[in-house]
Automatic annotation (TrEMBL):
This is cAMP-dependent protein kinase regulatory subunit. Residues 1-39 are annotated as: Disordered. The keyword Signal does not apply. Belongs to the cAMP-dependent kinase regulatory chain family. The lineage of its organism: Eukaryota, Sar, Alveolata, Ciliophora, Intramacronucleata. Residues 79-200, 203-322 form the Cyclic nucleotide-binding domain. One of its GO terms (cellular component) is cAMP-dependent protein kinase complex.
Amino acid sequence: MIQKKVLSSSDESSEDEHVEELQDKQKLIQAKANKPTRTSVSAEVYGQFNKKGQYQAKKVNKSEDAIKRIKQRMSQAFMFSALDEHELAIVIDAMEEKKFKAGDFVIKQGDDGDVLYVVDQGQLDCFKVFKKGEPEKHLKVYQPGESFGELALLYNVPRAATIKAKTDAICFSLDRETFNHIVKDAAAKKREKYEEFLSKVELLKDMDPYERLQIADALKVEKFNKKDYIIRQGEQGNTFYFIQKGDCIATKTENGIEKEVYSYKVGDYFGELALIKHEPRAANIVAQSEVIVVYLDSDSFRRLIGPVDEILKRNMSRYEKYVKK
């Protein structure tokens, strides 16, 4: 029996912001602060522009059904994954249900923003004008469990895009004050915890810092004891792992005999073969000490690892020859 201790977990969901959009926000921050770009994005985002004052917890009356739905949607959103039970309760109390008809504008690019939204029901289109005078570009469709609008709260800048209800929709809104006092700090701690680690992972070293932070937001953590099987040969694969602590080996079972074919250390990654090739796991991965891994689920992997997809495919040859059937 494999013993696993889950240290933190959240289902996949996040605001899939365009990279140029994030870079625009950074430029605006620099203009306000009149200082050069920092390598640490989290330090810039969570710094002087969202200073705390006195906070009085907000409580919006809502039904038990609404509370249940909020909990479900928050469990899907990366942004809330670092909150403890007390912090979650405060955020749930502060959230307010908002209903929109198909065609309604929820936020408009250029407007001031004082709330973020978590989608509960329906679909919402995201549009952005990248250059004045050009037509707006459709970026994505937000689905239940996804969130949007936090950039205006993080950076104190106008709305970066327009969100319009594609169907009748219900969202839960969270005010700036609760976000700044509760969600922002917890998210910052999680980002800071993994920002340095991810910057040292060879695969990710050339990624934009913002792209690495999106990965940090999506990471889940799991602990394994010595000799635990992290993945097993022949199973369907839906996770991609980085080793944060400890050592692992890859083993291959042939004719009933299991033999070691590869080894892994801190900063190495595994699990990508099954996700890229859509095939069962080609080998076992076994912990050789106490091991802590951080991992992405398959949806997050495909959305966030895009910039290094070609590197992954190229690097598959490093051990694929050992695990061929």
